[in-house]
Amino acid sequence: MLSFQKLTEFAKDKSAAGRKTLVSALTDMFLSADNDHADQVSLMFGDIVMAVLGQLEQEARATLAVRISANEMAPHPLMNELARDTIEVARPVLENSPVLTADDLVDVAQSASMDHLDAIAGRPSVEESITEVLVERGNDAVLTKVAENSGARFASECFHRLVEKAKASVEIQSALIHRQDLPEDAAKILIPMLSEELCKRVGELGSNGVLLGLIAERAAEEVVARSQGIESSHEQSQKVIADVQNGAMEIDEAVSSFVKSSSSAEVGILLAKMSELPVSAVSKLIYSASDKALIILCKANGVTERAFREILDLRAKQLGLGANDLEAAMSRFGALSVEGAERSLKAIQGSVGPA
Asked: What stretches in the chain show pLDDT beneath 50?
């Protein structure tokens, strides 16, 4: 135990070095105090150090903070003061001190730097009132750190705000998929943000039943949506073709609709139905090396030059045809009469059989 005489000698030296020596000696005394005298020593230690704290250089304050940061008997006023110091001094206190209350930490978090918030985010336990401020004020690094902290507790609304802020941060998303306490309603918002890689990681972790269930549910919904889309598209195509056959729609309008959606198969089906030919045979015409049969079917069924050009453009994209090829095909189409095309169509029908 430091003698009163020695303590008096240290106190007389008012230089920076003297104050450093005094605080170091007092810290030794505080840390070595037995249980019977701990309260008394803590009070004396706190009063004296608080009185000279403003005279200590940052290095000395940082050393003091490290030495007493995790001590349960550390004086509360002193720890509160150190927690608001520069980050070099405050970090060990903010990260470790059991003396600081939730109110203390909320107060610091509401006005301190991002570095201070980062230190608070890494505490062994972070209460809901504290995480609320961290999520409200923190940058991506702070939010990622507190989301990664299994000792951090979040109110449901706070989780929602955190998930919303995760939209532009893969790091926050990655941290959130490890949270076992993520509410289902917040998880539903998170799932659409996740990349294929993060979804795969959720599966590999296998520990978050809520996320696993939602990912499986989403996958099933996508399959249903795709199948419904295909079915809906097919039904719509069939209706368009039926309208052309019934005279309710011009064939050019149907061709344009199918070409705009790059539906070359539907163009083939349309021409097959109108020509009373097997679909399997006609569908191949669009991408056949020769355009002779395509010209005959289009001319015989009343396709105009404009619509025929659209079919050629679609064909050219797939076959890599140039402008000269297209103009030559247009010339052949223009040279063929409707009567000639109809005679040729009857010959084709006879050779391939009815639809």
From this structure: 220, 223-224, 226-228, 230-231
**Residue length, the chain?**
355
Q: How many Cβ atoms are within 10 Å of 54's Cβ, its own excluded?
A: 9
Decide: 3 and 9 in contact? Cβ < 8 Å: no
* CA gap 44, 29 in Å, rounded: 10
Whether residue 118 contacts residue 92, with contact meaning beta carbons closer than 8 Å, is answered with no
pTM of the model: 0.60
- At residue 352, the 3 state secondary structure works out as helix
DSSP state of 167: G
**Can you read off the two tokens belonging to residue 102?**
């939730």
CB of 177 closer than 8 Å to CB of 201: yes
Cα–Cα distance, 266 to 244 (Å, whole number): 13
Token pair 């995480």: residue:
131
Q: How far apart are CA 83 and CA 111, in angstroms?
A: 12
Other C-beta atoms closer than 10 Å to the C-beta of 321 total: 16
Whether residue 2 contacts residue 25, with contact meaning beta carbons closer than 8 Å, is answered with yes
Distance CA 351, CA 66 (A): 95
Domain boundaries, the chain: 1-96, 250-352
Segment 189-228, tens digit of pLDDT: 998 898 878 887 887 776 677 887 777 666 545 544 544 4
Measured N-to-C along each axis, helices 114-121 and 128-137 cross at an angle, to the nearest 10 degrees, of 140
In the three-class reduction of DSSP (H, G, I as helix; E, B as strand; rest coil), residue 156 is classed as helix
Report whether 31 contacts 72 (CB < 8 A). no
Tokens (6 digits) for 97: 């001190």
